[in-house]
Amino acid sequence: MNDRAAPRTQSEPRTVLLRGGDVHSPADPFATAMVVESGHVAWVGSEGAADSFASGVDETVDLEGALVTPAFTDAHVHTTATGLALTGLDLSGAGTLGDALALVRAHRSAHPGDRVLLGHGWDAARWPERRAPSRGELDEAAGGRPLYLTRVDVHSAVVTTALLDLVPGITDLAGFRQDAPLTGDAHHAVRAAAHAAVTPAQRTEAQRVARARAASLGIGTLHECAGPDISAEDDFTGLLRLADDEPGPRVHGYWAELISDAKGAARIRELGAVGAAGDLFVDGSLGSHTAWLSEPYADAPHTGTAHLDAADIAAHVTACTEAGLQAGFHAIGDAAIGAVVAGTRAAAEALGLARIRAARHRVEHAEMLTPETVAAFAELGLTASVQPAFDAAWGGTTGMYADRLGEERAGTLNPYAALLRAGVPLAFGSDSPVTPLDPWGTIRAAAFHRTPAHRISVRAGFTAHTRGGGRAVGRDDTGVLVPGAPADYAVWRTEELIVQAPDDRVSRWSTDPRSGTPGLPDLTPGAALPRCLRTVVGGRTVFVRPNE
């Protein structure tokens, strides 16, 4: 990809002509060129027509056959935690308990000055030992130092004795177990103690690293899901300031605090949040046995943990709607999702269905849906903010979901096709660092869902990861390259473009170029994923791949 008269970074939006590639746009399914002016798309069209713009632009980019798409939106991210995972101890590659402990020892030796050692990503369900590290094993591996290690789902953690000693009264908190992963209040308390050891400079650097990684993957917008049980207020407000002050992906912040009146809503706005939403926990996670189920787990004699009931949810949705804020909840288990539906419906009965639908409230994860709750999402206008990589990691007949729920219930999880058929808006994300930032891999996971009946087309998945993310934050003008839209786009090196159906029941015409449907990269498992060459946000270049 060649630039003429183009600096590598831009302080102000420039008028740019991109030509000689493929531009994914509903304005012209065969577009090969695009003009960007004043931070917005000004024109999309054919190569021949591009000649008339060539003399009036600041920069011409020869795409050399590359693909231009809207930049992705990751609709569920924990930015600081992502950066800390990228720069700290990552246990996601540990194949055994012994491997994990060895990584802890190496990290301890490499960071002699850290007040608290931080790590993420262990998953005992993938280890032959099938158990978490004991406190004694961690004490030895960490050399007696404070250590905080979150499970891959971030809903439980294992810690050392030295970290427990920093939290007075920890043994009296709900979720504390003497030699097992901590959950609930106990987990939140040790997390607060661990994160308090992170200096403001370390936190800011982690946020920069996370935004840079997102930009390098063609992600132009992040939905930060923060809250008092997840991170500190200064972490949240600092991230929003950083995103305003420095080039990189846009950040829309959600603060997960339960409110019941106008005073609470005003507090959410004072923080700079766009909604009292995100990880406002109705329940926990399946991996940690804390998702709230209507029937007991297959491998545990209980139904998980409920944090909010329908009355709490109704009061929150009502207060947010009256204040013009988005409400939203973390809900994974079928009982948790049922409570969200019941509470939102009660709010609709009080305020009117039209006001609830117009507010675009959202539900994070929404994994264990039933036909009834799918229909209710459509009725109430709830956006399903979902993470297809969860199914890729834990779905299937032999995955963690099947362990927790049994094959039959596990096969009902993440029914993306049913949600789309019902007209439920989908927004795709990663929940990073739970699963990595990886937009094309996310779309692949949805198109090749481990349960074939839940698969959707690559085109539908792409829409959920672009326009769907914009819609979920109330921005209908984003996620599509048409005149007037913000110039948030990415340039990709990829193979032949196709129109990929979710299975062979889709009519042949939909995969024929003559259908006029813009093509997308081949995401068949095993095929190489597109490589990002450039990411642009609001007309400003925020990433350029070196030597391209």
Automatic annotation (TrEMBL):
GO terms for molecular function: hydrolase activity, acting on carbon-nitrogen (but not peptide) bonds. It comes from the Bacteria. Residues 505-526 are annotated as: Disordered. Keywords: Hydrolase. The keyword Zinc does not apply. The keyword Hydrolase applies. Transmembrane segments: none annotated. SUPFAM superfamilies: Composite domain of metallo-dependent hydrolases, Metallo-dependent hydrolases. InterPro entries: Amidohydro_3, Metal-dep_hydrolase_composite, Metal_Hydrolase, YtcJ-like. Residues 59-543 form the Amidohydrolase domain. This is Amidohydrolase. The lineage of its organism: Bacteria, Bacillati, Actinomycetota, Actinomycetes, Kitasatosporales.
